[in-house]
Amino acid sequence: MTAPSSATRPAASVHGWVAHLRSGGTTPWLEWTDPGAGDEPAGRALPGAQQLELLRRINLARPSSARPRGDHDRERTRLADRVLAAPAAGRGKADLPLIGAGTTGFGARPVDPSSVDAHELLRVASTLLADDLVALGPDPVRRGMPRPWRRRFQLVGDPVVATAAREHLLGRGRPEGGPRPFVVAVGGPLDDLLAHTWTQRCFEHGSRPWGDWLRFWRERDQLPARVDLDDSVRRWGGRRPFVRIVTDLDRLPEHLGVRRLPPVRVPGADQAELARRISAVVGIRVPVAERPALMRTLQTRMPDSGVAPVVVPAAEHEWVATSAARMERRLTRAGYPVVGDLADLAPRAAADRPGPSRPAGQAGVDGQQVLDLAIRMIVDPGWRTGRERRVEQ
Amino acid sequence: MSRRVLLHVGCPKTGTSYLQDVLFRNQPVLREHDILYPADRFDAHFLAALDLMTLPWGGIETEAVGAWDRLAAEVRDWHGTSIVSHEIFARATPTQVERALASLGDAEVHLVLSVRDLVRQIPAEWQENVKHRSHITYAKFLRTIRDPARDSRIGSWFWAVQEIPDILERWGSSLPPERVHLVTLPPPGADRGELWRRFSRTFGLDGLPLDLTAERENPSLGVPETSLLRTINERVTSIIAPPDYRPLVRETLAHQTLSRSVASARLGLAPEDHAWARELSERWIEVLAARGYDVAGSLDDLLGPDAGTFADPDSATADELLPPALDAISALLVEAARLRAVEERLHGEVREAREELDRARATPAYRARRKVVTTLENSPAGRGSLDAYRRLRGHKD
């Protein structure tokens, strides 16, 4: 039976629903008909609709457990209490009251929790995941014994490729840097470079949303520091014979002194957006210097969902093409040795790329996909309890 | 001595900056009288509020890690009266309020809320939005806050920090009414010292030898100045990051330049909005009176002044915008010149360091060693030999 949405229900009904959710229940608030099934817990403020609805979605997503009942119940209650106490991060709405829960007439307008949008639920979910990540701590960095004969290099350019290569090589005893290194600038289609740069930023110090970030650079008619290859090379003091502009990634390993590099996995749009939100909360939980290591840990442990990476929307293609042409001219004039072809800096045509999970030309990330991933990570602690993922696809 | 905590949680635009500045600068005097205002920097309680509420704030929040717990620990350890004050605490949710009050230990908590009439608060909050990068027009701002859904970011924030009965419900519902203190702002034209006298009485500061010099205030802007700033925001908000916006636009332009035009028309409410704000205020006064809080001032102060002549900032003419625009250009040029001087000085220091390095490298022995290293670096065997040599010498690369 569905209760009338506008009818005011007794306080015991609200607390009964909270108790129902704490014990793993999944009944939506408007379908909750028990008028007085719960006692008011002493000293506990009523959570907002965001926390309550997130808990209900988590309960819906939880698999039935084969573990002993007592352990399962304790773990479920512990998680439920964490969800109910978690603040919705950021300057969004305050905790929203439940429709029909007998409010005083002041404060935010009561809502049906099932109508709370993904963005609001993600504000709570990202707090939970950030706390999980902080509790987990950073994975140790694998460092191989440095090979004395290694080629000295300084990697710049595509941050996703450079970060993955840097970590792999460090583990193989080939750390970046050293005396008189080759400055190896990893290039590629400029729209991919921009998408990779934003994606990697989400797994470092966080960023603005994808669309805002792109607009920031387009309106300035500038390129981010790591995307601007010419500027990156100059910043690292690269001199012509000791510079390589690499656009052919198959030939990147030889310029780093190895035979091969593992394939690079570009995080999906949902992963990047979730990381961006988690990063914002981690920034208020740990000193700023500790955030990159935690976010690196998240990057290697975050489960895959198969969602494609972000793409540059069609509206920005003209600016990206102009910027790519300008960068190509500057690199040509500088005369740096090129491995591949500078023409490859031109943005990839939209039709060539793998199908994005949203209509072409939209810069936004699908909030529901991000929420699904967040709930999956809250429900399944495998990403925290397992070893870090070693195989990159 | 009994332990008390005076928790001042809002509202914004009620003279809080001045109060916090006086408390911050007079910490030693206050301590001598057993009053603690625990702050190692002016914005310490702002950071504590960000931490308590998990509130990212343009990057500043990274300086707030653990700030609430540190503040609460100092309060718990203090033997006398402690004061905690920041206006954005007003936005805390019931769960956050519960955590905050629990972390203050067994001290007697008194809640303080300084309040001003909506007739003046609404224009002031719009100005505050404009000083925080927003380019929402005044008309749209009014439509937004009058929308009962409160769905927008601006609407939900405005009411979270300005709806007095709701703030007091969230913060004060577990306290007896005599421990909830409302400090009303005196009406326009009142004696300038009256607000301080009300604060002083509420916080128990009467008779203390405090330095009350106004060093830090949050000045308001006139109508054309706010209109100009909003127009500037339309151009720059998307391309100037918050860490640059704060010193260049809010400080240099808004606070140090545009707020000096005291002759400009002050922003108010159009007649219809004024009537709506008045009606809402009357309802609030009725509710607050029934709750029996301690009031410094009068609840009637919340009615606000009568409607005056309304100058609409959305229709400011180019002629009206020109003088503040020229002031803004001048101020930014002066700031640019100052930054150029800083840059030039830094370049000079780098130049001197390089010259010193070059002098050290100018010896024939150094040039010979450099030649050998360069040759060896060009082959794997050479790099291996160099690495072995460096290990023997204890160098690290």
Can you put this structure into words, describing what you see?
The complex is a heterodimer of chains A (393) and B (397). In chain A, helix 5 links the parallel strand 1 and strand 2. Chain A has 14 helices and four strands. Chain A has helices spanning 11-22, 49-61, 69-85, 118-136, 159-171, 190-202, 210-220, 229-235, 252-255, 269-285, 291-301, 317-334, 367-379, 382-385; strands at residues 153-157, 182-186, 243-246, 338-339. A four-stranded parallel β-sheet of chain A has the order 1-2-3-4. Chain A has two domains: 11-98 and 109-116, no CATH class; 153-264 and 289-363, no CATH class. With 393 residues, chain A is mainly α. With 397 residues, chain B is of the alpha/beta class. Chain B is built from 16 helices and six strands. Chain B has helices spanning 16-25, 27-32, 44-53, 67-77, 94-103, 118-131, 138-146, 153-162, 164-172, 194-203, 223-236, 242-255, 271-291, 318-361, 364-377, 380-393, and strands at 4-8, 35-36, 81-85, 108-115, 180-184, 294-296. Chain B has a six-stranded parallel β-sheet with strand order 2-3-1-4-5-6, sandwiched between helices. In chain B, helix 11 packs across helix 14 (318-361). The mean pLDDT of chain B is 93. Classes of the chains: A mainly alpha (393), B alpha/beta (397). Chains A and B meet through helix 7 and helix 10 of A and helix 3, helix 5, helix 8, helix 9 and helix 15 of B.
Topology:
The complex is a heterodimer of chains A (393) and B (397).
Chain A: H1 11-22, H2 49-61, H3 69-85, H4 118-136, E1 153-157, H5 159-171, E2 182-186, H6 190-202, H7 210-220, H8 229-235, E3 243-246, H9 252-255, H10 269-285, H11 291-301, H12 317-334, E4 338-339, H13 367-379, H14 382-385
Parallel strand pairs in A: 1-2, 2-3, 3-4
Chain B: E1 4-8, H1 16-25, H2 27-32, E2 35-36, H3 44-53, H4 67-77, E3 81-85, H5 94-103, E4 108-115, H6 118-131, H7 138-146, H8 153-162, H9 164-172, E5 180-184, H10 194-203, H11 223-236, H12 242-255, H13 271-291, E6 294-296, H14 318-361, H15 364-377, H16 380-393
Parallel strand pairs in B: 1-3, 1-4, 2-3, 4-5, 5-6
Helix pairs in contact in B: 3-4, 7-8, 11-14, 15-16
